[in-house]
From TrEMBL:
InterPro entries: Endo/exonu/phosph_ase_sf, Endo/exonuclease/phosphatase, Sph/SMPD2-like. One of its GO terms (molecular function) is metal ion binding. Its EC number is 3.1.4.12. This is Sphingomyelin phosphodiesterase 2. The keyword Transmembrane applies. GO terms for biological process: sphingomyelin catabolic process. The chain crosses the membrane at residues 328-348, 360-380. Pathway: Sphingolipid metabolism; Lipid metabolism; sphingolipid metabolism. Pfam families: Exo_endo_phos. Residues 27-272 form the Endonuclease/exonuclease/phosphatase domain. Belongs to the neutral sphingomyelinase family. It is a multi-pass membrane protein. Keywords: Hydrolase, Lipid metabolism, Magnesium, Membrane, Metal-binding, Sphingolipid metabolism, Transmembrane, Transmembrane helix. It comes from Podarcis muralis (Wall lizard). The gene is SMPD2. The lineage of its organism: Eukaryota, Metazoa, Chordata, Craniata, Vertebrata.
Length: 409
C-alpha cells in the first residue's frame, strides 16, 4: 500500500473579471491569463466571470495543447461565467443553478442576470475519481447593510448539499471559486462544517503570496479602494476547498496567491488575485479509518446562525410580497374606477362635457403598467418566500439530525 505512487495536482483558480464592454483591458488580460496557464502547465484551471463565450473560445483555442479537455457552463441571461480547463479527460458535467440569486430589478448589480450556479465535472486520474466543482456566489456590495446575505447563505447551503449528494461515488472532492465571503462568515463555516471541506490556505504546509491569503488587495489597480477602506491588508473571498473520500486522503502542500501585476506587464490578471494550490492524493494505509468527518458541536451553532439569517431574509421577502400585492390591488381599483368613469360619461348625463381622452388614456396605461409590474414582482417574491421557507425547513431537519447524532455519543 505504501508503494502506491503519490498523485499531485496543481490547481489554478481565478475570477477573471471579464465583463464585455465594462471590464478594463479585458481582451489583453484574457490573453495574459491564457499565457500564464500555458506557461505554468497546471492540471486544472477553474475560472469565473468569463461572461463572454467568445473569450472562452479564445482561451480554448490558445490552451488546447496543454488543456485538451474543457467545459463552459451556460446559465441565466448572460451566462454563469464559469468554465474549467483540464489536462485530463472530462467524463461528465452538470450544472446546478441556485434557487435564489438577488433581484431582477437591481440592474446595477446584475447577479440575477448571470444565473449564479455551481458547475461540476467528473475526472478519473490514475483510477481515482475526482468531483471538481466551480462556483461564484452572489456579491456582497455593502457589508454594513448586506441585503443579499440571506441569499448568499442559501447558496452556501445549497452548494454544501449539492456536494454532499453528488459526491457519493467520488474519491476526491475539489471546490474552487469566488465565494464572496470572508473566511469567518457563516456561509464559509457552513461549507467547511456541513460538507466537511478543508480550506487550502489553512491546511497548507507552505503558504506564499499576500498577507492572510487575501485575493482582493488595495494595491491592485482594478479594485475598488472604497470597498477596501476598512481592510487595508485586503480580504480573502476566493477559495480552493477539498476533501478526500473512500480510501483516499488529500493534503495541501502549497497555497499561493498572486500579488500584483503579471510578469513583465503593468497590469494584473484581474481585479482578483489568483489562488494556486498544490495538492497530493494518497491511498490510506491499511487499518487507517475512512474519512468520515466527525460531527462537531460547534456545527449546531453554525446551523442555527444560518437559519437565523434565512429567517431574516424570509421576513424581508414577505414584506416585499405584501407590498407588491397591495400595489397590484390598488392598480386594479384604479382601473375599475376609470372604467366606471368611462361608462358614466358614455351613458350618463355628462354628454355635453368634453371627455379628456388623452388624460384618461394616459392614466389607464399607467394603471396597466403598475398592475403588470407589481403582479410580476409579487410572483417573484412569492417564489423567493417559498425557497426561503423550504431552505429553513431543510436546515431544521439537518439540525435535528445533527443533535440526534451528538446526543447518541
Amino acid at each position: 500500500m505504501d508503494k502506491d505512487p503519490q498523485l499531485q495536482l496543481r490547481v489554478f483558480d481565478l475570477n477573471c473579471w471579464a465583463i464585455r464592454y465594462l471590464s478594463k483591458v479585458r481582451q489583453q488580460r484574457i490573453e495574459l491569463i491564457g499565457n500564464v496557464l500555458n506557461q505554468e502547465g497546471y492540471d486544472l484551471a477553474l475560472l469565473q466571470e468569463v461572461w463572454s463565450e467568445r473569450d472562452y473560445w479564445e482561451l480554448k483555442k490558445k490552451l488546447c495543447a496543454r488543456y485538451p479537455s474543457s467545459h463552459y457552463f451556460k446559465s441565466g441571461v448572460i451566462g454563469s461565467g464559469l468554465c474549467i480547463f483540464s489536462r485530463y479527460q472530462i467524463l461528465d458535467t452538470f450544472l446546478y443553478q441556485y434557487s435564489v440569486n438577488g433581484y431582477p430589478y437591481m440592474f446595477q448589480h446584475g447577479d440575477w442576470f448571470g444565473g449564479k450556479s455551481v458547475g461540476l465535472v467528473v475526472l478519473k486520474i490514475q483510477e481515482i475519481v475526482f468531483n471538481i466543482y466551480v462556483t461564484h456566489l452572489h456579491a456582497e456590495y455593502c457589508r454594513e447593510k448586506d441585503a443579499y446575505l440571506p441569499h448568499r447563505v442559501v447558496q452556501a447551503w445549497e452548494l454544501a448539499q449539492f456536494i454532499q449528494h453528488t459526491s457519493k461515488g467520488a474519491d476526491v472532492v475539489l471546490l474552487g471559486g469566488d465565494l464572496n465571503m470572508h473566511p469567518e462568515d457563516v456561509g464559509i463555516r457552513l461549507l467547511r462544517g456541513w460538507a466537511g471541506l478543508r480550506d487550502s490556505f489553512i491546511a497548507a504546509e507552505k503558504v506564499e503570496g499576500g498577507e492572510d491569503g487575501s485575493t482582493l488587495l488595495p494595491t491592485n489597480c482594478f479594485t475598488s479602494k472604497k470597498e477596501l477602506r476598512c481592510y487595508p491588508q485586503g480580504i480573502r473571498i476566493d477559495y480552493i476547498l477539498y476533501k478526500g473520500l473512500s480510501h483516499y486522503e488529500v493534503k495541501c502542500n502549497r497555497h499561493e496567491t498572486t500579488t500584483g501585476t503579471a510578469p513583465n506587464k503593468d497590469i494584473p490578471y484581474s481585479d482578483h488575485e489568483a489562488v494556486i494550490a498544490t495538492l497530493s492524493v494518497n491511498k490510506r494505509a491499511l487499518g487507517k479509518g475512512l474519512n468520515h468527518p466527525r460531527v462537531e458541536p460547534v456545527l449546531v451553532d453554525v446551523l442555527n446562525e444560518a437559519r437565523m439569517e434565512v429567517r431574516v431574509g424570509l421576513h424581508a421577502a414577505e414584506r416585499q410580497q405584501y407590498s407588491c400585492g397591495r400595489m397590484a390591488v390598488l392598480a386594479v381599483l384604479l382601473l375599475l374606477m376609470q372604467a366606471t368613469m368611462g361608462l358614466s360619461s358614455m351613458f350618463g348625463d355628462a354628454l355635453l362635457q368634453p371627455f379628456p381622452k388623452f388624460s384618461f388614456s394616459l392614466l389607464s396605461l399607467l394603471g396597466v403598467l403598475v398592475l403588470l409590474i407589481s403582479a410580476v414582482l409579487y410572483l417573484f417574491h412569492t417564489i423567493e418566500v417559498k425557497v426561503l421557507q423550504g431552505t429553513e425547513e431543510q436546515m431544521r431537519v439537518g439540525l435535528q439530525t445533527l443533535q440526534d447524532k451528538l446526543s447518541s455519543r
